[in-house]
Write a structure and sequence with these properties.
Layout: H1 10-15, E1 19-25, H2 32-37, E2 45-50, H3 57-64, E3 70-74, H4 80-94, E4 99-102, H5 114-122, E5 128-132, H6 137-140, H7 145-162, E6 175-178, H8 179-184, H9 196-206, E7 211-215, H10 229-254, H11 259-288, H12 294-320
Parallel strand pairs: 1-2, 1-4, 2-3, 5-7
Antiparallel strand pairs: 4-6, 5-6
Helix pairs in contact: 7-10, 9-10, 11-12
Length: 340
């Protein structure tokens, strides 16, 4: 596609010899072999993780795939897509990969776009790249309506919880990560199931890693998605609220205290005071039938307005603080994950 050319360079292609592809497999027995056949020679390792697939996807690969790059790993029990990807990450790191690309086994992700995901990581412009199906309006119409709405809602939740305000489509599973960065992440703490992609972004944010969107199209055929937006939305909402709370505490109070920290505290305090004071006097006015004095109204309204201004200033600071310098260039500094 046209957008991919911007990322594809001769240097990046030459460096792809250190690229590994991880493919989690669950109920993809009819799609996995055609997908493997489409992965180009620029990839050094292909790690297929059979996540206790009831269709025996891993057995299909072992029996019918002759590509010497392919290694099949079997899970004795289903760990979820995140658990399968983490297994693949660990195996790719052990094999010496420089960049690890994750592809779904259902064939929706085009392996031809792989250089677009790998090049920013190899060049040091990003630590993690992910697909964005919302970039080109021509491709949006191909996405099922329910999935389109659900992904848009999850994208906005993701911005708040991760601090990556400049990315979209957080549930997109087409990703590439620097192996050095993957090695320092607490992979054992990352959500093992469908929240994996969003939780990875949160973990990357705690390390100030640089994340870039890569425009892409998705292909929808006869495959059936195991992700049901209506079922996971309440769980996702709860986990996003949890991650948002952790992120604010880590960033603005544990690791540093800035003007934004004071804006947040003062803004919340004024909003709570104004709303509480105003609500109390409104209740008194309703129960007694007496109109509240102008001074009482002003004393309730002014803290709310000032608090709102302070919170907007905090939000502006937070949006402007998206990481700009790749973590992979700073890994010689001792980094520690904040306590959970």
């Amino acid at each position: 596609m046209a957008h991919a050319a911007a990322y594809t360079t001769a240097d990046a292609t030459a460096a792809c010899s250190a690229v590994a592809v991880v493919i989690p497999c669950y109920k993809v027995a009819t799609h996995i072999l055609p997908l493997l056949a489409r992965i180009g020679p620029e990839v050094a390792y292909i790690i297929v993780v059979d996540d206790a697939c009831p269709e025996g996807s891993g057995d299909v690969v072992k029996a019918r795939c002759t590509d010497p790059r392919v290694e099949v790993v079997f899970h004795p029990r289903n760990l979820g897509v995140g658990g399968a990807v983490i297994t693949g990450y660990q195996r790719a790191i052990a094999r010496g990969a420089a960049v690890i690309v994750k592809l779904d086994g259902d064939g929706q992700m085009d392996p031809a776009l792989l250089p677009s995901f790998v090049a920013p990581v190899l060049s040091g412009n990003a630590d993690y790249t992910k697909g964005n199906r919302f970039y080109d309006l021509r491709y949006i119409t191909r996405m099922p309506a329910l999935r389109l709405v659900g992904n848009a809602m999850l994208s906005f939740l993701n911005k708040f919880s991760t601090g990556y305000w400049d990315i979209f489509d957080p549930t997109n599973g087409y990703t590439a990560i620097s192996a050095k960065v993957a090695a320092v992440l607490p992979l054992d703490r990352v959500s093992a199931r469908y929240f994996f992609e969003s939780d990875m972004l949160f973990r990357l944010g705690t390390y100030r890693a640089v994340v870039r969107d890569v425009p892409m199209d998705a292909h929808y055929g006869d495959e059936v998605s195991n992700l049901k937006i209506g079922k996971v939305l309440p769980e996702f909402l709860r986990k996003h609220v949890r991650n948002f709370s952790k992120r604010i505490f880590y960033t603005y109070f544990l690791r540093d205290v800035s003007a934004a920290s004071l804006e947040l505290l003062a803004g919340l305090a004024l909003m709570v005071f104004g709303a509480g004071y105003g609500g109390w006097h409104w209740w008194l006015s309703v129960t007694t039938g007496q109109v509240a004095a102008t001074g009482v109204i002003m004393l309730a309204a002014m803290p709310v307005l000032i608090g709102l201004q302070l919170l907007l200033a905090f939000l502006s600071y937070d949006i402007a603080s998206v990481p700009k310098h790749a973590l992979s260039a700073r890994l010689q500094v001792c980094l520690q994950e904040p306590p959970q």
